[in-house]
Amino acid sequence: MGETKHQGPINATKTPQPKHWVSPIPFGLGKVKPQHFRDTMKIAWDNKDNIGYATRILTKGVCDGCALGVSGLFDQTLKGPHLCTTRMNVLRLNTMPALKEEIIHADIDQLRQYSSTDLRKLGRIPYPLIRRRGERKFSRISWDEAMDVIATKMKQLDPKQYAFYLTSRGITNESYYVAGKVARFLGTNNIDNASRICHSPSKTALKRSIGVGASTANYQDWFGTDVLLFWGSVASNSSPVSTKYMLEAKKRGTKIIVVNPYSEPAMDKYWIPSNLESALFGTKIADDFYQVNIGGDIALIHGIMKHWFEMEKQNHGSAINHTFVQEHVNGYEELKIKVEEQSWEDIIKSSGVTQERIIELSELLAKSKNAVFAWSLGLTMHSFATDNISQVANLALLRGFLGRKNNGLMPFRGHSSVQGSGEMGADPFVLPGSGFDAQNINRMEQIWGFEIPKWQGDIVGVTLENIVLPDIHERKIKLYYLSGGNFLETMPDPDFVEKALSELDIRVHQDIILNTSTLVDAKEAVIVLPAKTRYEQEGGGTSTSTERMVYFSPEIEGNKNLIAEARAEWKIYIDLAKRVKPDTAHLVEFKSGQEIRDEIAKANKDYEGIQHLKKQGDVFQWGGAWLCEGGICPTPDGRGKLISIDIPDLGKKEGQFIVTSRRGKQFNSMVYKETDPFNGASRYDVLMNAKDASHLSIAEGEGIVVYNGFGVFQGKAKFVNIARGNLEVHFPEGNFLLPRGRYEKYAGIPDYNITVTVEKADRYNARKDVQYIEKRIEDLEVDIPQ
């Protein structure tokens, strides 16, 4: 069956529909809500020193914010211009001048007074820097000296002792590809990227269930589907442009349902600035909220399926699409047995949702001819994340919500081109085009012309732990090469992370700006390399959106605040290869972005077509409009697989809470506002249910302590509409509660959810005086000489 191509952008419904309005009072005056227009004016003011260049980035470049893939002001979904606050907030990273010399060469303790937010605002890294052991300040260094220090060290080390990491801040497919190729050329498989700590389970789950690790649908499939169901996703906050699509979907009759512990205000009511009707009167987005416990999604889905099987006993075909299952799906009988053995009592207890409400959702989905399931970090950041997503896939396979218009499975990615990172091979488990298996290794060795190391590389979390291995250990990491990222503010157990980073011999930060992790000591040297942004990359570059659109973003001229010594990221990797292995470095040489794209098209067959992207507006979608079109999956037998699992036990004891993290007004770990414009919460507020607080005699605004055996978080109680027994704290502030070393078994994502105890601050501190309740972590303690 031939691939159906995406039809390109379509017209939005123009007729106003007052039934979706939040309020007839224009602009939501008097309500707690984002001030989009005011913020836009402020951002324009912040960029006034480089306004022409800022304008060209917005009108010519592909958005380096979220993964919706807006090219210039336009995308492939709806006609008309799009602009959102996430993109505007990130804009200044591309337009600001260099850091002042008196700041960058200040005493290190002075620099450490700054938060990452403060450091970001100070400006871009102007030239290569080094800070050797014992030195109090960064010194300027030439590119040749900096690269020679790194290369000399690499030559001394076993390739198992160094590692690469690439974040998601506007890095292009070309840079991901070259980084992956150079890492393997240098002999290491220790290369990982930012999706490890956001969406890696989406890929592993979808590969297991349907044979492909990407969104099977498009945003246009939201328009007129019967149900658009968001699981653990605050799409309106992470990707504000998506609210425009939600409004269009509602106007065409789609019912939007959110499954989330917290009834997120941004998914309830939103004022969409690029739509006049919504900017004036707001949009009621969600038609219904199902407030599930943190970690209770599997139980909820088992409840939906359990009722489906009960419906089937009464009336064959009333819930299951038997034709689709018989033709395209394996594992039906095993799943039926597994689901039927779950008791309603266990389902209700784990999910936190009543049987009546579960049946209501179950019947709605059974009666729907079409549905799109989208999810984000609420499903992915668990120790059983792959199983979470496989159960969502089960629902789609049982109903046939796959491989056709208005249906599909959509991991809702938050960052531009992070979809491309694994597809380019910047991941320990993959090479371009497929997995890290013997067949694909052999194929890529033919294309690359050099031998690829056969040992299994480590994920980022394990790599950090390997830094503190004994000196003689063959996998002790001694050099870490980082393209962006700040592990201090993204990984669990920040105290350990800081200790690990300081025990590296050499740490390289290839980046646009400084952050708090750049300022941590190293045993021999910290080297900082100024990178170009995607808009400065010679010959342009490409990025891959959530819906598999590969967009070309041209090089944009006219930066008044040009960083003369900044280099394109892919060029730095090639320079490194030439210094470490000069005799064979011609095997990784690329003269232009076009040459890289030519090779990507050969290395990853899905990317056949990327070589033709050459100018602004060029785009293609790999895989066509729908993956698994006609129900045929890219698995060995062409069939999807239903996955049977048990409801997980979260180990929550009586009186304990489960805490998860949420993002406020921020992008990744970059915080843009101390107060969340949707709910008024500050960064150290603990979101909790008022009834839970009353039970503990906690008043709103009162100081409370959230603690467990791993850490302590001190904040203030803020009452919100969240399922009882659940708490939310902001990321990264709450990461001190999370232990290191707990990874999802299939995808290696750290677990960002944990059981905790809550107490009034005065009671906790009074008890602490007589009974020290924090667990000692001996490897973080040092003996002070007497």
TrEMBL record:
Molybdopterin dinucleotide-binding domain residues:
659-753
Mention any Pfam family matching this sequence.
Molybdopterin
InterPro entries assigned to the protein according to its UniProt record, in alphabetical order? Asp_de-COase-like_dom_sf, MoPterin_dinucl-bd_dom, Mopterin_OxRdtase, Mopterin_OxRdtse_a_bac, Prok_molybdopt-oxidoreductase
What Gene3D superfamilies does this protein's entry cite?
3.40.50.740, Dimethylsulfoxide Reductase, domain 2 (3.40.228.10)
Recorded superkingdom: Bacteria
Domain named Molybdopterin oxidoreductase: residues? 124-579
User: Which keywords are on file for this protein?
Assistant: Iron, Iron-sulfur, Metal-binding
Q: What is this protein called?
A: FdhF/YdeP family oxidoreductase
